[in-house]
Design brief:
The chain is of the alpha+beta class and 344 residues long. The protein has a domain at 1-71. 20% of the residues lie in helices and 39% in strands. The protein has helices spanning 2-47, 51-70, 259-262, and strands at residues 86-89, 95-103, 109-119, 124-131, 154-163, 166-176, 181-191, 197-199, 204-205, 220-225, 232-248, 265-286, 298-311, 314-318. Strands 5, 6, 7, 8 and 10 form a five-stranded antiparallel sheet that branches. A hairpin with a 5-residue loop joins β1 and β2. The longest helix has 46 residues, at 2-47. The radius of gyration is 27 Å and the shape is globular. The protein starts with a helix and ends in a 26-residue tail after the last strand. Mean pLDDT is 85; it is low at 10-18 and 326-341.
Length: 344
């Protein structure tokens, strides 16, 4: 009898340890099935030439992305086979965003997205459908936006920074606009305590950045000719900062001469080099002065790269980055091959 009880107890303990693992494996299998469906539908969309058919397929795609995002276990899943749909997760795993785009026959693009935001009190995630509001925004650089009024983009990089209790998630995105103009976007996302997502935050120190007229921008929008590509990424690079110091020449009391000579000033220059992760981007300029403000005639300057460095709780603008360092990640792995973020 005692032997039977021991066997029964052992079976109960075994069930307790095995069932969670079995459940976890089932969850992963289910998420993998969603991922496979997303890949399959994405391929069909890219091959389809008819706009109505693409948008109809996109509804099917949306349903699978929706199911994957609503599965809270998916926050730990990499989705590494996806390309048409971008999936970015913050380092603290409190924010994840899915984004993708459909090209329309007009030459414009429509953007789609889903965001997951962590709620500390409930230790769960809130789900937000992102509604592309681009066409209705007259001054997108000056507004805080919500998921219902989203400045749509295909995001390819997420950067997490912290200032006190405030966490900023900086998103780099590609934003094809029409047949003549392309865009790239630096978007700031923050989370409220209830899991609401807010897009836009004035943390840019860009007083010397001539491209932008609004020095209090809540997001940076780069517009340029659709004929070219603009480099915008987060990378380890070097900046050389010149610091000039003026020093009066000293003279002995016995030395004779004019007063003007005694006030002669000597200037010394010291160069400080900063090497660290930063947002680096091509400098955009019009092809001539007459085309200023007409963005279909803006092109990247040859071998001129600028940067934004996060310091003193701001993304501060620095011109003329060295931009010759190889990309390295924090783990010291080999750099990945550069990706072409201009999708179309």
């Amino acid at each position: 009898m005692y032997k039977t009880i021991h066997i029964f107890s052992a079976l109960i303990l075994l069930a307790i340890f095995i069932n969670p693992l079995s459940s976890m494996a089932q969850d992963i299998e289910q998420i993998k099935a969603y991922e496979d469906s997303i890949v399959s539908i994405s391929i069909r969309i890219l091959k389809e030439s008819n706009e109505d058919s693409r948008l109809k397929m996109n509804e099917e795609l949306w349903s699978f992305v929706d199911k994957a995002a609503r599965d809270e276990g998916s926050i730990d899943y990499d989705f590494d086979t996806l390309n048409f749909v971008s999936v970015l997760t913050s380092d603290d795993k409190k924010f994840r965003i899915f984004s993708w785009t459909i090209k329309l026959k007009s030459g414009h693009y429509q953007y789609f997205g889903i965001a997951q935001a962590y709620v500390k009190n409930t230790k769960s995630y809130r789900y937000h459908k992102l509604n592309d509001y681009t066409a209705r925004l007259s001054r997108p650089d000056s507004k805080n936006l919500s998921p219902k009024k989203w400045y749509g983009a295909y995001y390819y990089k997420i950067i997490q920074n912290k200032s006190g209790n405030k966490v900023y998630y900086t998103l780099l995105g590609w934003k094809g606009y029409d047949r003549t103009i392309s865009m790239k976007v630096i978007e700031i996302a923050t989370l409220r305590i209830n899991g609401d997502v807010v897009f836009g935050y004035p943390i840019f120190n860009i007083r010397d950045y001539k491209y932008f007229k609004n020095t209090r921008s809540r997001r940076l929008v780069f517009k340029y000719s659709a004929r070219v590509k603009m480099y915008l990424d987060y990378d380890v690079q070097s900046i050389h900062i010149e610091k000039k110091k003026k020093k009066k020449k000293s003279y002995s009391k016995k030395q004779r001469g004019f007063t003007a000579q005694n006030k002669e000033v000597k200037e010394s220059v010291k160069v400080k080099t900063i090497t660290k992760p930063m947002i680096v981007m091509d400098r955009l300029e019009p092809i001539n002065e007459e085309m200023e403000g007409i963005y279909e005639f803006y092109y990247p300057e040859t071998n001129v790269v600028d940067a934004l460095i996060f310091e003193k709780n701001k993304w501060k603008y620095y011109p003329d980055v060295d931009a010759r360092n190889k990309t390295i990640d924090e783990k010291g792995q080999k750099p990945k091959k550069p990706l072409n973020y201009d999708l179309f």
